[in-house]
What does this fold into?
Amino acid sequence: MFHKRIKNSFITGFAVIFIIFAVLVLISLSSYKNFTRIVNNFYVHPFTVTNSCRSVQAAFRDIYFHEHMIFHESGEAMIEGIFENVIEHKEMFRSYIEILRNQYLGPASDIDSLETSYNAWDTYWNEEVYNRRESLSKVELEKKRIHYLILYDNVNLKIVKIVNFADNMAVNLINESDSMMHNNFQRDVGIFLVSLFIFFLVLLTVYKKFYKRILNMHKVVVNHISSGNFDKRCDVDSSDELGELAQNINMMTDQLVGFNTNLEEEVKARTAKLKEEMGNLARVKTELEQKDRLAVSIFNSELVGVAMWDETGRLIQVNDIFYSITGYTEEDIKSEIIDWKTLTPEEHYETELAFHKKLIEEKRVLPCEKEVKLKNGNKTTVLIAKEVISEEPFRGITFFIDISERKAVEVELEELRDNLQEKVIERTRELEENMKLVVSSRTSLAYLLEDVNDSRDEVIMVNNQLDTLNKELEAFSYSVSHDLKAPLRAIDGFSSALEEDYYDKLDDEGKEFIALIRDNAQKMGALINDLLEFSRLGRKDLNYTELNLQELVDDVYGDMIVLEKDRKIELKMDNLCTVFADRTMIKQVIINLVSNALKFTRMEPVAEIEIGCEESEDGKYVEFYVSDNGVGFDMKYYDKLFGVFQRLHTDEKFEGTGVGLALIKRIISKHKGTVWAEGKSNEGATFRFTLPKRENIIDSENSLQNDEV
Amino acid sequence: MRNERVEILLVEDNPNDVKLTLRALKKRNLVNDIQVVSDGVEALDYIYCRNQFSDRNFEEYPKVIFLDLKLPKVNGLEVLAKLKSDERTRHIPIVVLTSSSEDSDLKKCYELGVNSYIVKPVDFERFVESVSKLGFYWLLLNQTPEL
It folds into this structure.
């Protein structure tokens, strides 16, 4: 049913084209027929007719010319000659008339009428003139001639009429063919254009109806489906063959999609299965490996000696415990010289053979004690068990534990058991004595605890008081730092302004006074700063780190020596140790000690400074010292040495604020260390401090702080 | 930059320090316009255009504030906290100029977002040097966002 439509389209199309061609052919044919007719009429007939007409006319004139002569000629011979000519012409005339009759297109009566007139004229000439010519007088002849001429005119008139008709006919035909030619051209062009238009219409229809749709399908198939994109479908826009084709392509695509999906699912399922199998394999492999490892680790157990042997009793494989018990090495096993005989003392050969026989029968022998011969010839006792683990090839395995120590212990225990009784009695007596002691101690401990409780309350109270004091001190020093320095800055600032602005007006003494004011103000500033630093230390928490004293001293000394380039200084320094302390504070201590050493040796030609480090006698502390060959000090002023603002030298000699050593003492005390000095006037001084070692710091942390304030 | 814009706001209660600071800045020709207020309340009044400063344009911020910490009424730390917590004023550079070298003050100031912290030395020459360096840095070198 699909087929009919497109077939119909083709049939209709072909029919239309056929009909158009048929019409065109018919039109062309009719044109051709008309044309032939025109050509015939125009080129053949009109000329033939007019020619015939002219021939008739000429023949008629000739007849007339010759006949007419008879009216003038009198010689008989001549007349007979004329007559012959006349007859000849008359025959020609007759034949021409006959020809004309066939050709003439006008009414046949014209020709008949001409013939009648001619016959009348001819008859007249023959009977009235020619035959009676000898009997006629001239007058009569003349009369006859006039009548003859009238008849002649009559015939001539008829001929002229025919000639005119033929000429008119020719003119008409020419005009007709002209117009016909013109009309034909227009019509043919029209037909051509119409044909062309129809042809294009047909082409367009073919394109729209078939080619375009085929192209679309081609596009879908080539661009999408063949490249694996199954989303696209052909348009099914009619029920003809192409529609059917499109539907079939779509169906095929759907099937392809189905196949594809099935295939993908199949692949997925297979992949999943494969993965699962691979997972299983991997798991089995892992399990096998685990078992393998387990077996190896069991074999290599460090508790039990293991040895594997063949049917001859030769050892094939052993573990490390075997080596360590027997003293044999891996090389001994490899050289295949170790068998049951090597390991069995000769006196046990028979027992061993019986043992082996039992093993072969029962496949295993339960643990029993046995003596083994070692590599060095000694014997040791082991607990041993054997088992056959494989028949083909034969493999037996031996497990054994060295029980020589236990054996020894057993012997010892035996001995001990004998004198235990004595010891129990002795111990019981000792215990009784101790019990008496404990009872008396407990009584004294109770008194002691009471005392401790009292002391603790006291300590707590003192601590609280100290806390309050500390807080007050903090507020005080804050206010000092801010308020005490402001007036000093004003003194210094305005003195400076005075110096600058009134320089010209001041005499030398005035200038000196201003310099002194500024110097003192600045010194007081330095004092306040030192004092603040000192008080701040009391409140600061220690930040313990591992400190390399060597690095610290190098650092400090390096910085200071730059300022003392011109001096001769000999520095002796041992390799310094490491301490556990607060970096900033210990650095301050070292700065103060080194700068003091440099300061108080200033008068010496060669300054000798020694820095060292050693462990204290009890091993709990690290001792650090700096000694110099400077001015030293008198030991009777030792009490004042570490006091705040205490100075043993004048400011002119050695500048300073008197805070440096106090600061050192404070820092070292905070670290639970001690500081002291030895000196002699003009013979130098040695300053020493100790710091607890790291492992002793935790304990001291817990004890109470008893800093001096 | 508008001419009438105050370049430095100096918050200082000690008249001696005011005089010395002004002298130090003027010596180096660093300041065209400097506003001095003597306590924290006045400093905040100035910035927020209140009371005696009510005819000031709020948006003409000083280029830098030199702030003493120990001030009557409202202290320097409070002023610092207030200005640095306000979206509109937090960009103003604040230099704390104080006699106190206490660690706790220093730590607090930096926590509040101070731009510099200078301990006023007793030595006037060093004081001049510090102040003029600060003025030079904050007035000439430092770039603040245009308003």
User: Anything to note?
Assistant: Residues 598 and 607 of chain A are 8 Å apart (CA to CA). Chain A touches chain B at residues 478, 481-483, 485-490, 492-497, 518, 521-522, 524-526, 528-529, 532, 536 (CB under 8 Å). Residues 700-709 of chain A have pLDDT under 50 and may be disordered.
